Amino acid sequence: MTSAIAPAPSGATPEGGSGRAATVEFVHVTKHFDSGARWSGTPGALNDLSLKVPAGRICVIVGPSGCGKTTSLKMVNRLIEPTSGQVLLDGVDIESRDVIDLRRSIGYVIQQTGLFPHQTVIENVAAVPRLLGWPAAKRSARSEELLALVGLDPAAYGTRYPAQLSGGERQRVGVARALAADPPIMLMDEPFGAVDPLVRERLQQEFLRLQRDLAKTILFVTHDVDEAIRLGDQVAVLERGGRLAQVGTPEEVLANPASDFVARFVGADRGLKRLSLVRVGQLRLREPATARVGEPATSVRDKVTGAFPYVLVVDDDGRPIGCADPDQLTGDGSVTASGLVPASPVLTPDTTLRDALSMLLTAQALAGVVVDAAGRATGVLTIDEIGDWFRMEAGRLRAGPSGTGMPAVG
Amino acid sequence: MMEGLIDIASWLLHPAHWSGPDGIPARAWEHLALSSVALLLALLVAVPLGLLIGHTRRGDLLAINLANLARAVPSYAVMVMALPLTLSLDPRNGLTIYPIAIAMVLLAIVPILVNAYTGVRDVDRELVEAARAMGCTESQVLRQVELPLAIPVIVGGIRTAAVQVVATAALGAILGYGGLGRHLIDGIARREYDRLWAGVILIAGLAILTEVLFADVQRRLTSPGLRIARTGAAAEASEPR
Lengths: 410, 241
Ligand SMILES: Nc1ncnc2c1ncn2[C@@H]1O[C@H](COP(=O)(O)OP(=O)(O)O)[C@@H](O)[C@H]1O
Ligand SMILES: [Mg+2]
Prior knowledge:
The structure holds 2 protein chains of 2 kinds. Chain A is of the alpha/beta class. Helix content of chain A is 32%, strand content 20%.
């Protein structure tokens, strides 16, 4: 199965570095740990893995524990050598590169235990620049820049030791350390696995924000499907024995699991998971009939259409006050602010469809009002529209990975 | 009892005992010289060897078995066994300084080697791998990660060795080397028990000083980050030094 992931747009100008990124390609990579072949037929840690990660993109390798995720990562920086097959960076076999140089050009993030406990935060972050022989002034300037980038105040955190940090803070330092020498490639092995769910979600969001600017090629390992679909441009599902079960965009994997294993692994709620990939702002929203307080009721009544059979009453700045049933806008009076149904739920363009659906169900409403950053109503989202999106996506995916031109199937 | 203590104190304070080649300063100096040289030689052998074995994990069984063997043989026996060899090599000093020096070096090597080896071996493998993954050469892994993380254990071994050597170096007097052991030998021979006990107190005092000194060295060489990790960040935060 091929996937439709284009390289990140070149010319992105990251604040953290030069923006160079490399493609990473596994070519028929197999790994048997007991290569002495005393027991023929022992399952490999990796079995004929072929996978191409475009430059500047995040590939999440996901699968159950023991399926070979860590092994595949460690092949890229040659902590583990393949039994057969090759790993190519920008088309060049890493076997031909000096292993020390190679490793210094690849960022590596593991769980928080990877920080050096005897070094301060600043020293930890400056580890690779120190190996590369940068002068001290440049090292500390870079460390401070990176700490700020990952949201830690250098003045407050720089001289602390890892034991004086929370789990989430350690994880940020780990990311800063991996970025220090501006490597084109980052390997991240369950980096957010050891922090609580709330912190994890913050770190994931910030990680995506960082990546928007940095555009590194990132191989990210997790056993958490939700994390995989949230972070991946590409998701590679491994199954036990180190076989690649499927690779594709999160949408492709959720919509068309390649096997029973993948379907079971991504979960019965994969429909809902797909909804979490889409944000309200990506849909063409319906414009509701709106009215300001004081407008004549008759003219307003005529604007109401079938899909959202209410009038959205807004204030002078366009912010929603509530909804009015057109039948109650009787006679020739004017629209008043009293007797309105509260306009809930209120959604923003950033709300995922999954959250939107959940909010609609919780509020027992068929539609929610979408507001922009200033709180002005920009449209309404109905439950029907969420269903429409599903039908349209089904058609798009059936048309092929590039998803061009097929009309929605109703 | 009380009189005995007063006798010992007056022996220790007697001005005549603080001068000349048999005085306390001269004997203490001999004692320290022997101990320092033995410790230094042991360090030169045991630290690099222990680091190497710990880092490569090769030869560890052999090293540990040899160390245990060395531990099983008393220093006095080592001295006696060394005599024929040292006498044949150097008839003049072969009877005095060499046998005791060899015994002291062997005595010191054991804890230093064992601690250097286990200290490095027990460094968290994830950290070592993290260092390698970021492009440390093997010697950088050892110097920048394994050594600083193992320092408390390594210096702990040196501390044990130093105290043992200072306490055991008194044996040197048996073969005619000086040192504070002289006061013990002479005290017994001449039945001067105040001299004997003064010698015991001086040696014990020196051993305690050594212990205190190396404990301080150990503390100074250990990264504050490791101390905090061990005592708990909360405790450190509540009582800053
Ligand atoms: N150094 C090793 N020696 C022998 N077997 C190993 C080694 N590393 C990993 N394995 C085995 O290879 C398989 C894959 O391991 P790993 O890549 O760590 O899985 P994951 O990261 O997906 O949990 C497991 O069965 C594991 O036991
Ligand atoms: Mg793993």
